[in-house]
Amino acid sequence: MGSDILLLDLSRVTLIADYFVIATADSERQIGAITEDLVEQLRTKQGLNPLSIEGTPSSGWVLLDYGSIVVHLFSEAQRNKYQLENFWSNARTVVRIA
User: Fold this and answer.
1) Which of 81, 73, 78, 94 is nearest to 10 (CA)?
2) 69 near 21, Cβ under 8 Å?
3) pLDDT means per 10 residues in the chain (98 residues)?
């Protein structure tokens, strides 16, 4: 499981997506494991397949595009570098799990 999980409602801010899920993982291996598990769980339990998957665990950022929901899995360094939650600061925070 990732840490510092944030769900942002972007529906009134942009047409890119309705929601962003942003989470931090402790290692490349954890980014990969979370990615694989999330894709599998959404496929088997919800019948959802990602429209695209961008990035790699070794890059420190994996993006899972499910259309209206986009998941960003970051290493701590990459999350601090890109600071998506600051870029989308006008989006409504639905939930934050620290």
Assistant:
1) 94
2) yes
3) 94 96 98 98 98 98 98 98 95 96
8 Å CB contact between 74 and 24: yes
Domain that holds residue 41: 3-97
d(CA 54, CA 25): 16
What is the C-alpha to C-alpha distance for residues 71 and 74, in angstroms, rounded to an integer? 10
Q: In whole angstroms, give the CA distance from residue 91 to residue 20.
A: 10
Q: How many domains does the chain have?
A: 1
CATH assignment of the domain containing 7? 3.30.460.10
- What would the two tokens of residue 23 be? 């989470």
* pLDDT score recorded for residue 46: 96
